[in-house]
Q: What sequence folds into this?
């Protein structure tokens, strides 16, 4: 990968990686740090990563970097079985829109479910590609997407869950 | 009104339908089933709402992530070329200075042929080289005069073409052989003799190489002769051409490189990889 290829990757994928990290971490500063770490690793590996596989490499690296952060926060728990995060909310009236409700619900499902759903919906990755990024097989990816959507449906269907 | 629960199989089928994994016939059957089952359709619509719509999120620090591809590479090559040229010139000049021949060398290199002839010789008793006699024809003499008056250069190629043994030796050796025949710059000066008619002819004939070819040279002798070639050519005002080329073109701004030294007869004297 040449310098121009690397810069092209920045143009093409930096926003997507940032969005992926922001949806996961819900903290812009942490998300920026993840993006910087990710592209720094891409630059260091530019001789082995070509431009066609750069996007997959970026999301894999970003995901692993976030896993490191989660593990540092909760070192004793399995990252795939973390309980849904319970964030304090304001009032239910603040989540009138479907998108806002969905965003809120997304923060309440497990991290692996959120990861696979984000990669599936935002980036359009196939089950196999998501499996490469997360280290799961296709069946596990599919099951996690299914369970995540069922959880989102339940949360959205019951407004009390958003409070 | 909250819809009543459905079975896991129905939920999975709705999920497969929304994911686009069901065949067309199965999808059509499921759609038909939903027409008659409001509860199933409500679950389908609720599940469809869980699909995220891509949003535009801009990373504000994207320019800081980019790597600059400015003129660093060009400046690097240029600076390396200049540095290598200076080092090589300094090397040859220093070598010449140690032999205390700088005045003679500068006189040969910079003065015109007519002035060169008037240089007093301390070996006038030395026999002149018979190269002019061997050459013989007026045409060749005139050619030598023209060449000498234009620039004091040594035409090696013409001599090599006259060599009958040219086919049997390496072209590199043949091209540099005439110059190597002059062992020392003092020898060249000593053999110069003022001519009453045309001084330029004498200069040319004194510098004419012998057509004979060395029989065998060891590697050490060959390298030594190359060094002498280079030194003598630098003495006579030839500037070495230094070429810097990359070995690995992977767009690094500081790649591995090689430096080659080439003189006017296209002899690569040295090549190294710092």
A:
């Amino acid at each position: 990968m040449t310098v121009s290829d690397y810069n092209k990757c920045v143009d093409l994928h930096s926003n997507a990686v940032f969005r992926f990290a922001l949806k996961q971490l819900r903290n812009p500063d942490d998300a920026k740090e993840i993006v910087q770490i990710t592209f720094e690793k891409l630059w260091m590996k530019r001789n082995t990563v070509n431009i066609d596989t750069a996007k997959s490499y970026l999301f894999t690296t970003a995901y692993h970097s976030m896993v490191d952060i989660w593990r540092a926060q909760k070192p004793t728990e399995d990252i795939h079985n973390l309980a849904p995060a319970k964030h304090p909310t304001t009032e239910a009236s603040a989540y009138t829109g479907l998108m806002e409700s969905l965003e809120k619900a997304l923060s309440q499902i497990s991290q692996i479910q959120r990861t696979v759903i984000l990669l599936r919906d935002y980036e359009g990755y196939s089950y196999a590609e998501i499996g490469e990024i997360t280290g799961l097989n296709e069946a596990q990816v599919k099951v996690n997407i299914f369970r995540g959507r069922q959880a989102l449906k339940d949360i959205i269907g019951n407004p009390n869950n958003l409070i | 009104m909250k819809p009543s629960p459905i079975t896991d199989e129905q939920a999975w089928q709705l999920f497969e339908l929304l994911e686009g994994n069901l065949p067309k016939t199965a999808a059509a059957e499921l759609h038909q089933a939903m027409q008659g089952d409001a509860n199933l359709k409500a679950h389908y619509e609720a599940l469809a709402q869980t699909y995220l719509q891509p949003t535009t999120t801009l990373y504000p620090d994207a320019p800081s992530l980019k790597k600059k591809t400015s003129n660093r590479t060009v400046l690097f090559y240029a600076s390396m070329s200049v540095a290598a040229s200076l080092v090589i010139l300094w090397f040859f000049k220093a070598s010449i200075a140690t032999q205390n021949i700088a005045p003679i060398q500068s006189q040969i290199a910079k003065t015109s042929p007519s002035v060169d002839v008037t240089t007093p010789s301390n070996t006038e008793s030395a026999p002149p080289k018979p190269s002019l006699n061997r050459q013989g024809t007026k045409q060749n003499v005139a050619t030598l005069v023209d060449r000498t008056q234009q620039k004091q250069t040594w035409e090696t190629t013409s001599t090599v073409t006259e060599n009958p043994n040219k086919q049997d030796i390496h072209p590199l050796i043949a091209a540099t052989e005439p110059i190597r025949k002059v062992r020392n710059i003092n020898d060249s000066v000593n053999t110069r003799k003022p001519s009453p008619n045309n001084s330029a002819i004498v200069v040319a004939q004194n510098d004419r190489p012998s057509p004979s070819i060395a029989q065998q040279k060891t590697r050490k002798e060959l390298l030594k002769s190359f060094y002498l070639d280079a030194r003598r050519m630098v003495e006579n005002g030839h500037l070495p051409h230094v070429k810097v080329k990359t070995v690995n073109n992977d767009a690094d701004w500081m790649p591995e490189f090689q430096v080659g030294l080439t003189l006017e007869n296209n002899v690569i004297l040295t090549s190294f990889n710092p």
About this structure: Chain B touches chain A at residues 2, 11-12, 15, 19, 43, 46-47, 49-62, 65-67, 69, 250-251, 253 (CB under 8 Å). DSSP finds 14 helices and three strands in chain B.
